[in-house]
Amino acid sequence: RISQTATMSNNEGASLYNLYGLVDLLNNNRTVLEFWEGWREETNPWAESFAENDGLVYKKFVVFTCLFLSCNAIFFFLAKNGYLSEPLTKRPTVVANQLHCTLTTIAAAAAVLSYEPESVEKYDFTRNWLIPFTSGYFACDFLWYCIPQGDYLIAIHHAVMFSCYLPMGSHAGAAMFAAGDEVRAIRIAARDLLCEVSNPFMNWRWYLMQTLDKHRFDYAFVNVVLLFTMVARVFLVGYTIAFDLLPTVALF
Predict the structure, then answer these.
(1) What is the pLDDT of residues 82-114, one digit of tens each?
(2) Phi, psi of 118 (to 5 degrees)
(3) 108: nearest Cα among 221, 231, 192
(4) Cis amide leading into 45 (omega within 30)
(5) What are the residues whose beta carbons fall under 8 Å from the beta carbon of 220, sequence distance 6 or more?
(6) 191-231 pLDDT, tens per residue?
(7) Which helix (H) or strand (E) holds 225?
């Protein structure tokens, strides 16, 4: 009876051990610490991407971050010294934001529409330019807006975004992010960057709200399109989780 009690206690302990997430998703008797150590030493996409081509993707990332910071600084200076009119004087950073989201949406759409399952070279532009470009903007907004304004929720979002995207700017990093399938990683990244499609319309709506003194058709139009793109974003993220990430958990 004592033995049975001990066995039951051990089983209950094991259940609690699994319940609180101390065994990883593969259920192979590794603790989270052991999983982390193995990942860090054997399959670290950040380290591998940094080592590839002398860290070229990170150098481009720094360049784009500086360019976006410079854009903000220039338009902030122009607004402060009376060279811009309203509503740009209220929000001079909208120029860099609009530049980023518009170019990112166009480039991401082109990458998604030209998808070829076996062609790594087809995604050279996405990997070599789009990834560091969009990561640079997130880093810029992190430094220019999030930290000074104390918006830590958006700061976490931006930090996660450029931390996840950057390694996919290299062959090794992209392959590790998708359990060896580099094309799949870049395809997911390009598709998810289509979420930027709503931001140009949000900026357009903001501009109209600042300048209109009566109702106009374009204001109604932009509201309808914005609603549609926001719903599309939710669907896009849900699709990625359900059909790209969850089915491949065991591969990691």
Answers:
(1) 899 989 999 999 999 999 999 999 999 998 887
(2) -100, 5
(3) 192
(4) no
(5) none
(6) 899 999 999 999 999 999 999 888 889 999 999 999 999 99
(7) helix 217-240
Roughly what angle, to the nearest 10 degrees, separates helices 94-113 and 56-80? 140
192 token code pair: 């998810």
* Cα dihedral 33, 34, 39, 41 sign: positive
Query: At 115, which helix (H) or strand (E)?
Result: none
Axis-axis angle for helices 217-240, 182-192 (nearest 10): 150
DSSP state of 241: I
pTM to 2 decimal places = 0.81
CA 184 vs CA 9, 155, 204: distances in Å:
45, 27, 33
- Helices and strands in the chain: count of H runs, count of E runs: 13, 0
Provide the 8-state DSSP code for 180.
Answer: T
Q: Phi and psi for 4 in degrees, rounded to 5? A: -65, -40
